[in-house]
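Lab notes, practical 5.
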Amino acid sequence: MSNNKLNMAQTPSTRASGRSKSKTPTRGVRSPSKSKSKTSKDDPQLSQKKSVPKGIYPPPARRSGSTEYDVWFIIDAVLMCTIATAGIIAAVRNNQLLYLIPVSMAEAKLGLIAHEACHGAAPSYLAWLYDCALGSNAQWIFKHNKGHHLHTNSLDDPDLDVSPVLRMHPQHPRRWFHRYQHLYQYILFAVVPVSLRAQGVLYLHANGGWIDILTHWVLAAPATYLYLVWPVLKYGFPTGLKFFFTR
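Output from the prediction step:
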């Protein structure tokens, strides 16, 4: 009888509070809704994120399921290399710079193919097209992939590191000549290909091993001869350099 009286004496509010207290989880007990952190066994993408060694950065692995377009990348690269080679040979033989117009267009397309390869959207071996054109795919991956794309349009973006010649960011100091940079910027852009090639060679010799340096110069040997050595031997120095700096 006493227990029944006590139950009847409890108000609805006390009963509700009793039920809410009973549902409160005990401290120190892990909630069943919380999942464990993923490991490399659970997520195959985590196993691919290995520590990248300092220095040379290899091209990223090809994404799975996108190899059906490889043949078109290869055909495009072979066609553009043929156009560039035929154009520079015709230009040097005839001492005519007009032949460098298709050469420049072909090199621009080759740079786009190598760019896609460095991002993993094209076969990774096509990234070596940068080295075939006297550049460096390792320097491009370091500067573009790991610099520009991680700090796009910020002060840490290496593509904006052209101050004080050009003012590319609101926080860059303003100079009087920046009022005219929309006019003289095209003259500066004309030397960008030469600058990128110089940066690539310097980066490679500063950070790469002897195998990396040897591989680069083996791939760059044909272009070095066609663009630099042969014209200088044929027309002398510095007249022969016009074929390298004009295109």
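Observations recorded by the TA: Residues 139 and 199 are 8 Å apart (CA to CA). DSSP finds eleven helices and no strands in the chain.
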